Amino acid sequence: MTDFNINELMLAFDSLCVYRNLLNDGVIKKLYELGVLVCRKQPGADEFIRKYNEFFFELTSSNTIQSLKEYVIKLILFDENPFSRQAEKLPLDSIDEIMIDATSKDLDRLYDISRITSQQLKEYALANICTCEGEKRFISSLPAWEFDNKREYGPKRSSLNFEKMIDVLATSSKWGECVKNLSEFYFTNGSGIFARYNAFVWEPIGGEPSLRGIESPDPIRLSDFIGYEQERLEVIENTEKFVKGLPANNVLLYGDRGTGKSSTVKAIANEYREQGLRIIEIPRKYLVDFPAVLRLIKGRKCRFIIFVDDLAFEDSEESYTVLKSVLEGGVENRPDNVLIYATSNRRHLIKEKFSDRAGFRSDNPDDEVRAQDILQEKLSLSERFGITVIFSSPDKKRFLEIVEGLAAKRGISIDRDKLQKEAMKWELMYNGRSARTARQFVDWLEGSENLIK
To answer: How many whole angstroms separate alpha carbon 183 and alpha carbon 87?
Structure first.
């Protein structure tokens, strides 16, 4: 559209075929309704003002204020459609030319939609809708939706791949020619929700369990850690094999509280995000939904770590048998693009009782005849993790090394003897020696540095 033409704008909306899901988006729907209203022969100024403000409200209700063009670009990158689903698995030259052509035309139409300005619509209304000076005054005062184009297009911790694709579309006036760039983006990052987020949690939404993308995941990186390098290395090496498509093992991180087991898994997910790694946390109470999660991500381009934090079971829990089946031996195999990383304070994951061993020598007719079988059944779950990494509480020397390393990273200047003395006092007063206690002490120290010199 070289000049503003409301009829051509509506044809651009109605002609979308590959990206047709975008018509269901709240902002796009309000813009479409505004266009439909303006196309009527004699809409009232009051109707125009109401629809205009409904659109403006939807556009500015997102987490960051953004222009219409910014918003449409983000929709394109995170839409799941026939082209994006194919492109996440296949290079562009393997996709049917008809699909590529349809996608290219859709992108040109979306560019036309994205560059509609508030001024164009207001000028159209002033010329074709207003019947008096009062109406013209109200319409002229309507807010503009063209915001500073230096604003961020997404979360502060968005991926480099995302930022590069943003720049391609933001600086192009021919989106239809960006199909190759877009195809490469989907091929690297996946499509839909898996392109938008790298961390997810499985939880009920509207009464039904579903996958929720986390807008601001824990930003911790491997470089943030001090200590436990050897323990962490085994998990890193296993993950690197996984993201490269090589055989890798499920991992159980077992050990004392506060030693960095959960943080290690989160940091690894952040570290390998650009290589297509995603993490899905399943709370223990939803482990019975494990098969549903696997079916949802099976066949996707991304690779997934299913993360179960603080794993432990009562022997009667149904989720125990579900997880055991998924780890090994179930009828429905675990997909090749999925690994399970779990943390636990219990070595064998299931609560053991002395009564479990009573059956070895028991006169009670209610005791199990094959008590050894029952015991082995309980021990078998942890054995189904290919790798078990033990995170033990640090001794005094290791604890102080962690404290000193964290203090140095923060740029805290304090006498070494004074630092160690204060750290040991903190450890005695609070949670004992652990990596978490060391971090909590350094957090306190950073805010109290001037008080203890």
So the answer is: 5
pLDDT in tens, 214-250: 988 889 999 988 888 999 999 999 999 999 999 999 9
- What secondary structure does DSSP assign to 188-215, as a single string? HH-STHHHH-SEEEEEEETTEEEEEE-S
Residue 378 identity (one-letter amino acid): K
Q: What ranges in 26-159 are assigned the alpha helix state H?
A: 26-39, 45-60, 68-78, 82-87, 97-114, 118-128, 133-140
Give the separation between CA 122 and CA 348, rounded to whole angstroms.
68
Angle of helix 45-60 relative to helix 26-39, nearest 10 degrees?
Answer: 160
Reported residue count of the chain is 453
**Which pair of structure tokens corresponds to residue 72?**
């449409």
Retrieve residue 78's tokens.
């995170």
Closest CA to 151 of 68, 53, 30: 68
pTM, 2 dp: 0.81
> Which residues, in sequence order, are CB contacts of 234 under 8 Å at separation 6+?
387, 389
The amino acid occupying position 164 is K
Q: What dotted CATH number matches 222-391?
A: 3.40.50.300
Convert the pLDDT of each residue in 299-330 to its tens digit.
898 999 999 998 876 654 555 667 766 776 55
41 by Cβ neighbours in 10 Å (0-12 / 13-18 / 19+) ranks as exposed
- Which tokens hold the place of 65? 């204020």
Query: Backbone phi, then psi, for 415, in 5-degree steps?
Result: -55, 135
Helix (H, G, I), strand (E, B) or coil at 426: helix
